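Message: Just now I want nothing more than another pair of eyes on a protein record. I am handing you a single protein, as its sequence and its fold in token form. As I understand it, each token names a local backbone shape. Take your time, and here it is.
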Amino acid sequence: MPDFLDARKLPSDLELRASAQQPQQRRVTDSLKVTERLNPFELEKRKLFVPPPETGAIIERHRVEIPQIAQQDPYFFDFFTKELARNFHTLKAQIQHEHRQGNVYDDGLTERITGIAAVQTTNAVFAKEVELMTDELTGMPNRVYQERVLEFWLQKAMEGGFPLTYMEADMDGFKLVNTLVGHAGGDELIKASTKIGKSPLRELEVVGRKQGDELFFILPGVGLTQAAATGQVIADRSKAYLINEVPGEKLAPDDQISLSGDRKSVV
């Protein structure tokens, strides 16, 4: 008799259940191994652009288009999704009240009107927030951004257990630059320095203008050693740019123009 027809050689129910569980157990084990290899910051990054379930349902149901900057910056994503949820619930209560006053009890209509109004209100508030936190000269983050977003990342770093480094830098000899090339030339150098400062940064790392020629850097997930290396790259690139941009014949032998700064580990 062939083995597959011999009942004595067929696997028992217990063996079948155990066999069915093995692939699932392997998947769970593999997933745990992957999680163990991720550092705390990598784990945090997985959650940064995931809205709370209720807000996610609003976004999906009303096909809300999240602004580009909110898709790239965790602070703005957090602000947009929280503002959307708050506006949706506030406006829904108001619209429901108005409809009942007019003897309108169409829940679908209320939902659609609420969605449209909430998105419009949220986009308007969000645009003002972005404008408030953007430097007019460079188009980069400004001091307001620095204060709010540093606090945002500080809380995330303390909760997630990952490093956070903050750096500031300014242009040594900037007054000399203004003298040599004029204020308009000085503004161009400031704009150029922010672009140079951004060039070696990775995803989620930010450079902005605090005031005058002072720049700031917020580096989540970065310790002091790595931050020092990043700072050196920025300083070297800035020096090369400044040497080429400011006519050498206008500089006295002791004149120095360079980008220098300080850094500190916040967490």
About this structure: Residues 1-11, 248-259 have pLDDT under 50 and may be disordered. The chain has two domains: 53-132, 143-265. The first helix runs from residue 13 to 37. The radius of gyration is 28 Å.
